[in-house]
Design goal:
Number of strands: 4
CATH architecture: 2-Layer Sandwich
Strand content: 35-45%
CATH topology: Alpha-Beta Plaits
CATH superfamily: RRM (RNA recognition motif) domain
Structural class: alpha+beta
Number of domains: 1
Largest sheet: 4 strands, antiparallel
Oligomer: single chain
Order of helices and strands: EHEHEE
Radius of gyration: 12 Å
Distance between the termini: 21 Å
Strand order of the largest sheet: 1-2-4-3
CATH class: Alpha Beta
Helix content: 25-40%
Length: about 70
């Protein structure tokens, strides 16, 4: 899974895990279709909806990441 960098663990994202919703940061060049495919392969679920949010750039050296929330149907 080259495009998904790491899972996000906040109070909200942990609460969403109970609803089969996963939150993770991915590389900025990844498309929604690629991310959907990676999530379906990694978690073994069918993605039925996806929300994306581009984080604001804080420092020039930082990579711009996408915050992705995938809603799945088990």
């Amino acid at each position: 899974m080259d495009g998904i960098k790491y899972a996000v663990f906040t109070d909200k994202s942990i609460r969403l895990l109970g609803k089969n919703q996963y939150t993770s940061n991915v590389e900025s060049g990844s498309t929604r279709t690629e991310i959907k495919h990676w999530v379906e392969l990694f978690f073994g679920v069918k993605v039925i909806a996806m929300n994306s949010h581009r984080l604001p750039e804080r420092v020039e050296e930082w990579d711009l990441l996408w915050d992705i929330q995938c809603i799945t149907d088990v």
